[in-house]
Amino acid sequence: MKKYFKYFLVSFFLINILMIFLALLVYRNSQIRLPFLRLEIGGLIISAIIGLTVFMFRLEKGNSLVNVIIGYVIMIPGLLVLRNVFGTYLFRSASLIYIIMVVVGIIYGVVVYIVSRRYKSEVELLNRLLEEKSQKEED
């Protein structure tokens, strides 16, 4: 639980900065001030979702590929909350949120590929060390 709260606090800090920047962007483009409470509650929900996503991604129990896929599924509602917070002021077309989901999916795919390569190299290293140890014991 400590790790989740650490991930939550870091994501809350970064999401608040992002929300303030996006609210400023909306204000500059359309002269509409978004309510602070709406931004903060949205940021809190998105941070909780991102914290849970990172927690699932870094979870050492279970299959890492399944954890990454579950993390991606958990992250999708965060994008929908972002769309509800900013509404049509930021997302003028409905297709933009789907484009963002595809970009996040591609980034997640790259992460899965990197993680799987890292684990394969670790498995090869451990197998090699086990073979060396068994050869030493035989001698």
Question: Can you give a write-up of this model?
Answer:
This protein is mainly α. The chain has one domain. The chain has four helices and no strands. The N and C termini lie far apart (47 Å).
Number of strands: 0
CA(first)-CA(last) distance: 47 Å
Give the proportion of residues in helices.
over 70%
CA-based shape: elongated
Q: Major sheet: size, sense and barrel closure?
A: none
Instruction: Report the β-strand fraction as a percent range.
Output: under 5%
| Contiguous helical run count | 4
Which spans of ≥5 residues are poorly predicted at pLDDT below 50?
none
> What number is the mean pLDDT?
83
Kindly name the structural category.
mainly alpha
How are the SSEs placed, and which strands pair?
Layout: H1 2-30, H2 36-58, H3 64-90, H4 95-138
Helix pairs in contact: 1-2, 2-3, 3-4
Distinctive features:
single chain; mainly alpha
Compact description:
The protein is mostly helical and 139 residues long. It is 88% helix and 0% strand. It is built from four helices and no strands.
